[in-house]
Amino acid sequence: MSKIEHLQHDGARVGYRDDGEGRPLVLVHGTGGDGEANFSGVMPYLSARRVIRPDYAGAGLTDDPAKALTLDRLAGQVLAAVDHAGVESFDLLGFSLGAAVAARLAARQPDRIERLVLVGGFVTGADPRSQMQFRHWADLARRDPASLARLMLLTGFSRAFLAGIDDMESVVAEMVASSNWQGIARQAELDLQVDVSSDLADIRAHTLVLGNQQDQMVDPKASIALADGIGRTTLDWIDGPHLALMETPKPIAELLTRFFHD
């Protein structure tokens, strides 16, 4: 059972989960997820680590009344959780929007982060397809959450995975009931503004970039752009969709274990 902690930071009540013992590893979730939803599948494979999972604004354990989100605000919330946990030096993994948050944090805190993993990340959300997708997400999050839940399932998971779900509408209903849709709208609006191109050269951590080859949410080429912009980087691939961390956590955990033990 995770230990759940809260702290006050810059007008927000930030929550995080704290599990295990060992070298600290901080996991940063993506748009529409939280530390539990995105990473619960991989947690059993990280039992040798102390794992800290902050929820940033718009998600899970965190309550933030700010209307507009920025990468700096989310990175500040993640770092505040790490500081509250009493951690100085740590490894860091960011997924999707969380990869942009992690890249910003790694660029600003180079002396504290030894190893960095960016999964399904992107340098910028400025390309036309991303702009259309994230505007659509923000619109649906505010006026039709069930339709956004269905869209995220259809584009986030593989065809084979979805074919194994007998009662899809029950899954949709659970997503609608358990998600912070106004928060997701604010996160999607931040996705529109993401640009970490100026951060990449300042990242000094040994970095693993993991792209999803079957990704329908983020162009797999975005992982190549991330890797090209960072110095000490290994680029590897997951043969899966954007939400492969949730669909097939074991092979991803194996890649992480290999990277952390190199």
TrEMBL record:
Annotated keywords: Hydrolase
Domain AB hydrolase-1: 24-248
Domain of life from the UniProt record: Bacteria
Pfam families: Abhydrolase_1
InterPro entries to which the protein is assigned, alphabetical: AB_hydrolase_1 (IPR000073), AB_hydrolase_fold (IPR029058), AB_hydrolase_sf (IPR050266)
GO MF annotation list: hydrolase activity
Claim: Hydrolase is one of the keywords in the record: yes
Hydrolase among keywords: yes
Protein name in UniProt: Alpha/beta hydrolase fold protein
Organism listed in the record: Celeribacter baekdonensis B30
